[in-house]
Structure formats: C-alpha cells, structure tokens
Amino acid sequence: MFVSKKEIEVRYAETDQMGVVYHANYLIWMEVGRTALIKDLGFSYAEMEKDGVLSPVVDVSVRYIKPLRYGETASVHTWIEEYNGFKTVYGYEIFNSNGETAVKGTSSHICVDRGSFKPLQFRKLYPEWHQAYEEAKK
Q1: C-alpha distances out from residue 5 to 10, 12, 68, 101, Å
Q2: Where are the domains of the chain?
Q3: How far apart are CA 137 and CA 4, in angstroms?
C-alpha cells in the first residue's frame, strides 16, 4: 500500500482556547494529505476540476487520540483505504512531533458533474488515474 506523507507546522491560529489544535483543522490537514497523495501519484484535483468534475466528501470519520499544540509539526499520512472505481475512501493517520498518533480518520468521495451533480464513473473518466489507485491500494 502506498502511503503519502506531508508535514505541517502547527500555527498559533490553528489552536483553540486550550492551546491545542482546533478539531476542525484536522479535516483541513486531511485534505492537504489527500491532495498530496493525488499529486504523489501524478495527478491533480485542479486538472479534474478544469474538466468539470468535482469530488465531494460524502462521509468523514475522525478519531481524536492525542492533542497537537502550537509549535509542533504534524505528519499527515494518507493512503487509499478502499476504492471500487466509483467511490474512494482515503485513510489518514496524523502523528505528533514525537511520532505518536494524534488522529485517525477516513473520508469517502465520489466524482460528480459540476453542473448537474450527477455521479460519474471515475474508472471510465480517468482510466490512468483508476489504474494508479488500483496499484496504490495494494
């Protein structure tokens, strides 16, 4: 299984009153990890959007284990948890500076037409991307 890794320095603005990363920021970091994975595989969300194709989140799950704080570096690990040619489930594990798991999560995505939001068959639209996902999930 291919795992993409992306480091993110925790900024002060990403923390809450308790001095820990605000919970919703992990979703943003998951998106950063997901786009890094796609880029690492040789593709681009931006190019897909130019084709009039969007990839909305249809489900997300996050388990908070340890807090991250300002000044630490988060390491976002992202992989393809499940893929069937239509829906993709990305897996995430975010580590703190000590290599301890801070967050685990998944997000599920499908592709839709920008104008109609009609679901599209990813494997038919992007056969090379489909093949890369099949290989990456092994």
Answers
A1: 16, 22, 17, 14
A2: 4-136
A3: 12
CA proximity to 52, closest of 102, 117, 124:
117
pLDDT, mean over the chain: 96
**Which sign does the torsion angle of CA 109, 114, 119, 120 carry?**
negative
- Summarised one tens digit per residue, pLDDT across range 50-97 is 999 999 999 999 999 999 999 999 999 999 999 999 999 999 999 999
Q: Tokens 């908070």 label which residue?
A: 64
What's the pLDDT tens digit per position in 108-124? 999 999 999 999 999 99
Return the C-alpha torsion angle 11, 94, 35, 134, nearest 10: 180
Active-site residue numbers? 16
CATH fold of the domain at 4-136: Thiol Ester Dehydrase; Chain A (3.10.129)
Query: What single-letter amino acid sits at 121?
Result: Q
Q: Does this model's pTM top 0.90?
A: yes
